[in-house]
């Protein structure tokens, strides 16, 4: 499918406004990072506790955040999982001993906020020992003859039923199907217990040392990806092509991280995954254009390099609009409708796709022109030594893409 045919847009005419905009965005992002002491890392990187909660209805995220603010030390994040009545509550902790304290505060705060009865045991957030202790005396007082082992078996059956229903029991009468839950036991449950609207599914801890290690690994993963692509493109094309492509991708990454800092958004592991996805996506777009430039260098020897780049970009315009446009719409949909958990991931993709699409044309391609102009200006200086002929895989002067000197020589010979 070809959306545009025989277009002749002068893209490089607008290179300076785009380069200027990139410099402004990059400077603003770096200044913001410097003023804030670096990126705002999430709990994944700086350490903390992460609790997963499930509700029996749509979770009131803002109400949860307001209820917990001020009661737990440090930063609190509340994120809803898209498509599920679940939220992730993240809290800062100085050590793992604070996890149980924070869990108790969260449980008590949410129970009081969402109307659990005072003095009753929350059946959806109780342990087996708590439930046994709560039922033992009421059953004895009611004259129910039940041994300690039978009581443990009943409680085990209730826990299994709760686990099989997503951790939440919505109706006491539903427990009548559990083995050992007689009408007397059910009456005791209704009297002594309440059914809270939420349950704590899991509680995880990321220590400060683990967080620092994750930071280092995330940075190394990004640098290794850029380095590997530089080596590949330098081998497949010419070294200046590899440098131009890596600078363009580095530009995309810096702008995206800078926008995160300017908008005070957290960088989590999902954001790092988005950045690595962005590195590969942006590099792929750049390679497509560079490959067309390489092909046209053999076919259009009379064209100037700037004109040849414009032709190559026009020839790949349909492909760029289709791939980048559709990917952008998908990422934008995630940003608008994906919920809080996917917000950072989708925001990074949206910013990166925009930056990556224009950096191929207005950042990477002009670098080739600047390099050619630099080489040719040096050649014109009196007594300047001639630049060495680049050696590609096919031998001297016959690599997959001609060097700047070879390009100029080919055009002179054609004239």
Topology pattern, helix = H, strand = E: HHEHEEHEHHHEEHHHHHHEEH
Question: Quick one: CATH class of the largest domain?
Answer: Mainly Alpha
The count of domains is 3
- CATH homologous superfamily annotation of the largest domain: Multidrug efflux transporter AcrB transmembrane domain
According to CATH, what is the topology of the largest domain?
Answer: Multidrug efflux transporter AcrB transmembrane fold
Going by helix content, strand content and strand pairing, the class is: alpha+beta
Annotation, overall tally of beta strands: 8
Q: Which regions contain 5 or more consecutive residues with pLDDT less than 50?
A: 387-415
CATH architecture of the largest domain: Up-down Bundle
Mean pLDDT: 80
Radius of gyration: 31 Å
Q: Going across the major beta sheet, what is the strand order?
A: 2-3-1-6
Q: What is the count of helical runs?
A: 14
Shape: elongated
Oligomer: single chain
The major pleated sheet works out as: 4 strands, antiparallel
Please report the distance between the alpha carbons of the first and last residues: 37 Å
